[in-house]
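Our preliminary data section would be incomplete without showing what the modeling component actually yields. Below, a chain of 450 amino acids is followed by its predicted structure, encoded as tokens that our downstream tools consume directly.
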Amino acid sequence: MDKPPRTFWQIWNMSFGFLGIQFGWGLQMANMSAIYEYLGARADQIPILWLAAPLTGLIVQPIIGHASDRTWGPLGRRRPYFLAGAILSSMALILMPRSSALWMAAGLLWVLDACINISMEPFRAFVADLLPEFQRTRGFAMQSLFIGLGAVVASALPYLLTHVFHFAGTTAAGTIPFTVRLSFYIGAGAFLCAVLWTVFTTKEYPPDNLGEFRKQKSEGAGVGAGAREILASIREMPRTMRQLAWVQICTWLALFCMWLYFPVAVARNVFGAPDTNSPLYSAGVEWAGICFGLYSLVCFGFSFVLPALARQYGRKTTHSLCLICGGLGLLSVAVIHDKYFLLFSMVGVGIAWASTLSMPYAILAGSLPNGKTGVYMGIFNFFIVIPEITASLGFGWVMGHLLNNNRLSAVVAGGVFFMLAAVLTQRVEDLYEVRHPKSSLPGNALAAKP
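Predicted structure:
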């Protein structure tokens, strides 16, 4: 069907739920390594404790994508999954900071990630479902905007609660600080409310032929049929998707190195904390949350200009330049000893993050066959979680045997991976740019529409 152009506020509403989803991710990314160390984990144990996050994405996202492709009911196709995932994620966020042992925190991270993935995967397909092709760059950029905004608040919450709102309380050794626990409780409410906004403000298009849709659904019913279809889709991945896979693998290796070790590297290498019981350690982790908040703020602001850059330079070149900024940002951490200079490093990371959350998906959407957007968006997640699984299983050995448990060296390695991803982006074939001359790139096409 021909999809009518959407207004700015309609695109805003359909993307608003990502604000809540990012509360879940932002709290997790900024605090989980520290939570593990509060509960007694060593540096070389942290990667394996993070294994839950990528494993749940690897399993859950293709299944949810396939299921949502075949769903239609009173709430539509994707919205039932937004809502279910939001309710479950909010419950997990409330339970997470109440962990009293490592095994409990790792188990709850597994549950939390599964629930967040149930909400997140259909949001990617949601944009492709509802927007005409020329508006998809703007749609995915709007998601980046809300991801950035949500992460700003989520990452900075413990610091704000301590230093702005003056929540206090002593923290015994081996327990999670009160401000971290309160941040997770606030995040639970924000997650649910933001997703509910999208559920109630945005309607979905029904299948073009509802009778044929129901027939295909019944023919493909069952776990075995679903698994066969997912495997067949993997074998038949579009060429553009295969090329983007290598870009994603390197990009997310870079991000995973940063998320795993930046907070604890700041605490130990910049603030000079001797151990987790030192006040310098808490101060360093809180400052890393501010740094994460800044790169998310940059992501928020830079998302406004991404469509214009894509129009001017093309989506591939824009993405390569953004990844280079991220690489330079992480490489610079190696020579920084003043906490305030870390903020400049995070500007480059924020630019890369904004592009990573939008450009690959905008390029991918134009190459996907009709009726399989959900399952392919789920499969595309493989190239996020496979490098994360690799890092979780293997990076502990690298830390223990090659890097002497130096958290700062791991962050610098992330910068190298960003640079490699920038080079690989130039190999990708963007079918929309192939089909349209430069004057008809997404931003120009958008400007030409009434």
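The first helix runs from residue 8 to 15. Residues 92 and 406 are 32 Å apart (CA to CA). Preliminary results of this kind motivate Aim 1 of the renewal.
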